[in-house]
Write a structure and sequence with these properties.
Number of strands: 3
Number of domains: 1
Helix content: 10-25%
Distance between the termini: 10 Å
Structural class: alpha+beta
Shape: elongated
Order of helices and strands: EEHE
Radius of gyration: 11 Å
Strand order of the largest sheet: 2-1-3
Number of helices: 1
Length: 62
């Protein structure tokens, strides 16, 4: 498992667009991207196009 820096373009509940940045702990880049989208949606954001920028950011600390 490693930590990934994820960036998701999204719209918030008030209709404002921007970029949601979140650290994600996942085994692969794909798992990190899915977790970023799910996390944004769970927080009330609507991803604008489903694309996620994912960058490795170290190892997870549990």
């Amino acid at each position: 498992m490693r930590t990934w820096k994820t960036l998701v373009d999204a719209t918030d509940p008030q209709g404002r667009t921007g970029t949601v940045e979140a650290p994600v702990c996942a085994g692969t880049e794909t798992e990190a991207a899915v977790a970023a989208i799910e996390g944004a949606q769970a927080s009330g954001y609507t991803p604008t196009d489903g694309r996620v920028t994912v960058e490795p950011d170290g190892n997870c600390k549990h």
